[in-house]
Amino acid sequence: ADLTVKKVIKFLIHHKIETYISIPLGFVEDKNSYEYLLSKYLHSKFFNCEKLNDEKFRNILKITSRELKKKLLKIDKKKNDNVSFREKISKKDLINLSKFKNIKLVAHGTTHVYLSQINKVWLKWELKKSRQLIKKIGGEEKKFVLPYGKKNSFNNNVIMQLKKNKFTKILTNINGHGSKNNLFYRNLILNSSNHFYLRGVNSGGNEFFDDIMLSNKKINKK
Question: Which of residues 204 and 64 earns the better pLDDT score?
Answer without folding.
Answer: 64
